TrEMBL record:
Organism of derivation: Streptosporangium jomthongense
Pfam families referenced in this protein's UniProt entry, alphabetically: DUF5682
InterPro entries: DUF5682 (IPR043737), LolB (IPR050458)
Name listed for the protein in its UniProt record: DUF5682 family protein
Amino acid sequence: MSVSVLGVRHHGPGSARSLREELTRLKPDIVLIEGPPEADDLVGLAKDPELQPPVALLAHVPGESSKAAFWPFAVFSPEWQAIRHAVEADVPVRFCDMPAAHSLAPASEERDEEGNEEDDRAPAVRADPIGALAHAAGYDDPERWWEDAVEHRGDTPFQVIAEAMAAVREGHVPGEEEARREAFMRRAIRTAIRDGHERIVVVCGAWHVPALAGPPDAGSPGGAWGAGLPTAKADDALLRGLPKVKVETTWVPWTYGRLAAWSGYGAGVTSPGWYHHLFTAPDRPVERWLTEAAGTLRAEDLPVSSAHVIEAVRLARSLATLRGRPLAGLAEATEAVRAVLCEGDDLPVELVQRRMVVGERLGTVPDSTPMVPLQRHLRQEQRRVRLKPEALDREHDLDLRKPLDLERSRLLHRLRLLGVGWGTPKESRGKGTFRESWTLAWRPEFDIDLIEAGVWGTTVPAAAVARVHDLARGGQEKREVPLAVLTGLVEQCLLADLPDALPYVIEVLSEQAALDGDVTHLMAAFPAMVRAQRYGDVRATPAEGLAAVADAMLTRICLGFGGAAAGLDEDAARDLLKHVDAVHAAVTLLQDAPVPEGEDSPAARWLGALRGVSGRSGLPGVIEGRLTRLLLDAGNLEAGQVGAVMARAMSAGHPPARAAAWVEGFLSGGGLLLVHDSRLLALIDEWLTGLAPETFVDVLPLLRRTFGAFAAPERRSIGSRVRSLGTGEGPAMTGDAEEIDEERAAAATRTVLALLGRTEIA
C-alpha cells in the first residue's frame, strides 16, 4: 500500500501538466482531490464532452442565497486534470476537504469534553509560502519565481516542493479552520486505506503536503503511512461537534474574469488567459502568444504586420536573457506588445490585457447536470430566442416589431423581475418606443439567483408572475407598497408580457391610489402608469383598466396640486418641481389618447390646473417661475402676459432670493427664450443691474447654477443679446449715461464743425 501526496499550485499549468504525467506513472486505484466531499457524485459528469471548463462546483444552503461557495476549475487546473485522468482511466475520485455542510454552517462556540469553553488562542499568521520561497531565491515577485521554477520547467519536482513546504511550515501553528481542513483530509486518506485501496494519490495545495504526508524523513520508503502525523483519535476529537447544515451541490459555468485574483477568489491567478495559453501551447508559447496578440489587434483594425511579430519575439527573448530568466514570461511578452505591436500606446495594450491575459472564456455544463427546474427552463429559453450566455459584455439592439426581438425583450424583463440581471437596459440609439438596447453579460452568481428564484415557479413566466404577486402585496410582512413601486410593477408586467399578473397589480394599485391622500405620491406614480399605457399599445399587450386608473390619478393630482404647492420650503419645492416636470412630460404622451365626448383632454385639464395655481400667493418662487414657463410653452400665456408676470415677480416687493428662484424655475426649460425675446431679457437685466452689491453677492450662486445649466452656445447668444440692449436693437437700458471726456472729444468736435461749415458750437 502506498500514499502519494502531490502538492500543486491551484490553477498552475506547469503543475497540471506534470501531474498528469505523474498519475500515469503511479497508476493509482483511487484519487483524492482537495474539494467538498458532497460533490463526489458529480465527478462522473466530467466524462460528458459538454462539461467544458472553466466551470465551478457550487455548494449552497437551500433558501439562503448568502450561504454559498464555489470551487472553480480551469483546463489548466491540476485538480481538473486529476479528475479527467481518473474518469478516463475509470478510477474512483473522491473529494477530501472539509465538507461544505460544515464550512457553510454558522459559527458556534466550541466546547471541550467537560463542557467548558475552550480558550481562544490566536493562531500564528500564515505567511505566503510561495512568497517566502521566492524571497529565498532572490525574487521580489512570487508570480515570476513560480513561473521560472515550475511553469517553465518540463516537469514539476513534487518531492522538492514537498521538502520546501516542510521547511516553510517549520514552527507553524495551524489556525483553527486550517487544522480542521487538514484533519478532514487525513480522515479521507484513512477511509481510502480501510476500503482496501493500495495505490492512493492525494492532490492538494502544496501548503498542505507536510500535514498529509508527514515530515520528509518520517518512516521509510514503502512503510506505513501516517508516521509523524496526528493520530486518528486526535483528528476525531478536533472534528467533534462541528455545526452542520444541509447543502446541495452542482456544476455551474465559470469565467476567466472571475478566476482572476481581482475577482475576490482567494486562490485566483492574475493572468488566467496566459496560463491557459501555457498549458495548451507548450511548444513555442511566446511566438504563439504574440501572434495571437497581433490577431486581436488586427480584429480592431489596428495595423500589425508579421514584421511586428518577429521584432516583438526578438525583444521578448532579449529581455528574458538580460533578466536571467529561462524563458520569456508574461512581463516580457507584455512589454514587447506595448513597445512593438502597440508602438507605445497603452490603450491597445489594455485590450490585449482584457481579452488575452485575463480572457473572456465562459464554460458550459451539460443538460444532465443537477439543476432546479427554473435553471433548466432558462436554458431552453436561451436556445429558443437564440441568446447565448457569454462572459463578455455584448450589446443588443432590439426592434420590438420583430417577433424574435420581442421574445428576447420579454425574457430579459422577466429575469430582471426575478433578480437575475443578465441584461442591463440602456438608452436606445434609435427613436421610438419600439426599440430597446441591452447590455448582456453572464455572471456565475446568476445561478445562485436562479436557484433562489426557484421557489416562485418552475418556468420563467410562472416564477415572474408569482414574484410580482409577492411584490404587490408587500412580501411576507404584508408591508404597504408605495404607489410609485406599484406603477413600476405595472410597467414591468407589460414589458415582460405577464397578463396573468397585471390585473392583480392594477387592482392593488386602484385600491391604494383611492386611499392615498398625498398628491406627491400620485405625481410620483403617474408617469410610470402613462408609460405602461404606451408600452401596452406598442407591444400589443392587453392592458384593460390602465386608462381608467391613470385618468383617476390625474384628476386627483389636478385637484390637490394647489394645496401641495403652497407653503413649501426650498428643498421641498425643488422636490415637487421634479414631480411637476415628470407629470407634464407624461401628459404629453397622452395627446393621442381618445377622449370621451364632452370631456376635456388630459393636457387641457393639467394646464388648467397649472393656470389656476400659478397666480396664487404663497407659491415658492421656483414653482411659480416653472409654471409660468410651462404655460408659455404650451401657448396658454402670451409673451406680454409673461412680461407682466415677470415684472411683478421681480419687483422690489419680493426678496431678491425669491426673484432669483423665480428666474431659475422659469429658465429651467432652456435659455433660448431669452435669445428670442429681448423684452424678457431686458426685464431680467434691469432687475439684475439694479441689485445692491451685497444683495447681488447673495443671489449670485443661485443665478450661476441657473445659467450654468445652459449649453455653451446658449450662453454666448444670451451674452451677445445683452450687449445689444440699449443700442437700438432692443429695449433701452436704464441707468445714468456714461460721462463724456470733453478733452478727448474736442478734436472730433472741431472736425465735425468744419465739415458743417461752422467754427463754434452753438
